[in-house]
Queue: 4 jobs
Job 1
Amino acid sequence: MLPLGIGYFCFAVIGLVTSIALTVAPIFMLLYHAGVVHIDGNVVMESPHPAVLPLISIAGLLLLTLTMHLARGIGYLHGQLAKTLLVQMRAPD
């Protein structure tokens, strides 16, 4: 079960972090270029066209929805695996 747990954890962390980053990054990019957010040091940021930024946020929200649905499916499959491993087989009459 340890390899499955590691896989589930990696899937959950990577899926959530990537989708949240895609959702929030355009907002921070706009705030950075507006001068509201200040970052110390040299920041080299090639910003995409402003019309693309809402599409990036929408892609992040879709990825978040997909991640949650896949996590639910993985939970269901893991429950079926546990049920199969834990339920004793009855002897035929």
Job 2
Amino acid sequence: MLIEEAVVGSEIGCAVIGNGGDLVLGEVDRVALSHGFFRIHQEATPETGSENSSFICPADISPAARDLVQETAKRIYRVLGCRGLARVDLFLKDDGSVVLNEVNTLPGLTSYSRYPRMMKAAGLPLGDVVDRLVSLALPWK
């Protein structure tokens, strides 16, 4: 059994791509819930998303909160030694602090996935994301 403290806040995500010190951050998004708990999608029709949530990208948060989310995501990515890409999901609490939710080291790259939407909003379309990933994976990089 695992018991965790409830975190009251909004789920916020940040896409990260790169290795070491050369990181590119996507735009921050927010999971907007109409009710209940966030469920990733409906398995029968994943492109329609969840019946109780939608994604706001860029997130409707203050510039200071956006900066905190991006800097925290970058720091977590580096501390964990991530390479290539990841989506760092956090909770933004009402007091303005952030709490790590999870690091998704293999985020979806479909047209309805969060990661490509965040990168596109930051000016990096999916084709460029894939090109960058291939380049990062080459042995001489």
Job 3
Amino acid sequence: MDIYLLVKTLHIISATILLGTGINIASLMFFGNRSASAPERAFAARMTVKTDFLFTLPSVILQPATGAWLVWQSGFRWDDYWLVLTYGLYLLAAACWIPVVLIQIRMKTMLEARQNGGAFDQARYERLYRIWFTLGWPAFGGLIVIFWLMVAKPTW
């Protein structure tokens, strides 16, 4: 088998998982958060955190590794404008994703404590949720633009 095609396939699959899991996590957390049921909200938060670690994290690691290998093997210039833009957007997505994961863990912990009869600070939870929701947009938008850049490889 051609190693280049294998790495390119891994790159495409991990990009698809990254985007698809992001949409799934956002939907799960968004709709789970709209439930009045504490167990449903806690379940949504638990599954969100698990999904991020099982699927998103490996994809976040594979993307730059396979991407760098593909650039090296394809003969693209590392400073091609579309690649530099891709690097920046990927860093933007990562800069949003890292705090999002920490927020998700905190929200999960708060919801589980509430479910077990512990104290629950609704105002703090809602503030964390708003930050989580807000950070998701630039990360998601950046990934959409990256997909386009990978396909189009514009030569502006």
Job 4
Amino acid sequence: MQRSMTRIRTSHVGRLPPPKGSEDMPARLASAEITDPAVIAAQVTPAIAETVRRQVETGIDCIGDGEFWTARSLDHYTAHFTGVEARPVAAGEPPTTRHSTRERDEFLDFYADMDNAGTLFLVPGEKPMPPITVRVVARDPIKSKGPEAINRQLDTFKAAIERSGAKVEEAFVAVLAPGWLDHFIFNEYYKTEEEFLFALADALREEYRAVVAAGFVLQIDDPGLPDWWDMLKPEPTVEAYRKFARLRIDAVNHALVGIPTLHRDRRP
């Protein structure tokens, strides 16, 4: 990432609200409903271009594409990986780890309201999400399907930056970390948790490489690493949580092996 000796440069994390009229676009991209290049050029690129313009006008130095492509669904995973499938959620079984946490047990009314609303985020214009009735599982070796899916996102981001007409100094793309992906894909194939996480890391490495090769800053998206301490059930000891975190850090580092880093000082 660029550095400055004179001021604090700005960036951000998380999905941004789509422009008005494009509220359903993230869901359509996530479900692989939109893959036709002509449709992407006509509908997706202009929406991301508007998102780029708004970030630059706000004063963001390192801008993102709004994370319109990121999702936690079977359609999204199967576009990127082999070895995953969905099965019905068994009685008393959570569809993701986020549906069974100590925080949910402590704030029952809050989470009941959010479940009824169909979202935790309440993005303006967002349509409520239906209840999750399937669990995504790994039943065979998880491997990358190649960079086609991530390249579609990267090419669209480049086209959107050009279309925006804004002066973009730096741009990033967020990709999930192995230790966050395993909150939504459950292991029913690998013998150990470590084997599973490192298989996810190997599958993600190609996407990490694609982001860097395209000239973007790679942002590793792993909110579970810092905030899962008060979520895990049962409550872990400090030593157990250290082991939990270290395994996920090791998996990220494994995924990043061989990917070049570049530091640039920005001076007046």
